[in-house]
Amino acid sequence: MQPVSPYPARRLPQVPPKRKKKRPPPRDPAPSRLAYKLNRLMMRGAVRVFLRYCLPVLILASGAAFWASEPSRIDGARDRIAEIRRQIEERPEFMVRMMAVENASSPVSADVREVLSLDFPVSSFDLDLDALRGRVESLDAIASAAVQVKSGGVLTVSVIERVPVAVWRTDEGLQLIDRTGHRVVGLASRVERPELPLVVGEGADAAIGEALQLFVASAPLTDRLRGFLRVGERRWDVVLNDEQRIRLPETGALQALEKVIALDAAQDLLARDVSIVDFRNPRRPVLRRGNSGVEGLFETDFNLSEGE
Question: Concatenated DSSP letters for 66-87?
Fold first, then answer.
């Protein structure tokens, strides 16, 4: 016989049977319409460039525009930028303290310094080198110039001077001109440059190249040569001492002068009593004897008669 427990019988909780969870239906691997459109949109190169570069710029620009919408902020920013710039420009390494003129004679160097008229020291940021070069090249005696700032705070002006090749007599006086007919400098007296040929007449500067050829060809007449007279802006007369003149044609002036020199060497043409050797028509040269009315030609007062 089993003993009886004084405690009531304990009921165990009933555990409901486990139910099997329903598996969700398999997911469709195809993307949604929105995802499909976004993927297709991102495949475009322009969209990727916009998102990578343009969009950040737009965001920054919008923020800057919002910040700059306040006028006081703009003024303050300008003042700070100007102060920073001034401090940079006035640093010792950017200051120009002197000027050097290279390849120039003393008078030309003085003219360059006068035309620039700079007050040193000056910041290199305040120098417009192109404008300075233009002012230097405006001088008649200078063909070209180069302006640059070198280390040590030196403004270097390197110039190429015009080389005078002839003396040109005008109503304003004597002038030295170069091969292009450009004025170089005024001349006080003819005796200052006796080695250069003298050209007279309107338009002589424009035909200086032909005059130089005639000057070289007239080397046998150097002792008697006085100069070259431009007549009617179209032809030349060669003026010699003893009141002699050689009239040359408009075209073929060099060949005509060479013929006159050859005749003089063969027959002493210019040693005779001839005042004018007219070679304007090389086929029918004309000689004129006696006084031709050119007395005083190419003298100090230069009272020339340019008529035919």
Answer: HHHTSHHHHHHHHHHHHHHHHH
CA pseudo-torsion sign 268, 272, 277, 281: negative
Q: Which amino acid is at 302?
A: F
Q: What is the Cα 3 distance to its own chain's centre?
A: 130
Task: Supply φ then ψ for residue 17, to 5 degrees.
Answer: -65, 145
Is the pLDDT at 77 greater than 80? The verdict is no
User: What does the alpha-carbon distance between residue 294 and residue 172 come to, in Å, rounded to a whole number?
Assistant: 22
Report the candidate in 191, 133, 142, 144 with the shortest Cα–Cα distance to residue 164: 142
> Strands 154-161 and 142-150: what pairing?
antiparallel
Instruction: Please name the residue that has the structure tokens 């009933």.
Output: 14
Q: Residue 222 above 70 pLDDT?
A: yes
CB-CB neighbours of 50 under 10 Å: 13
Does residue 101 surpass a pLDDT of 90? yes
Six token digits for residue 93? 């390494």
| Burial environment of residue 307 by CB neighbours within 10 A (0 to 12, 13 to 18, 19 or more) | exposed
Q: Do residues 95 and 121 lie in contact, with contact meaning Cβ atoms separated by under 8 Å?
A: yes
pTM above 0.70? no
What is the set of domains in the chain, with CATH numbers? Answer: 92-161 (3.10.20.310), 166-288 (3.40.50.11690)
3-state secondary structure of 98: strand
**What is d(CA 302, CA 182) in angstroms, rounded to the nearest whole number?**
22
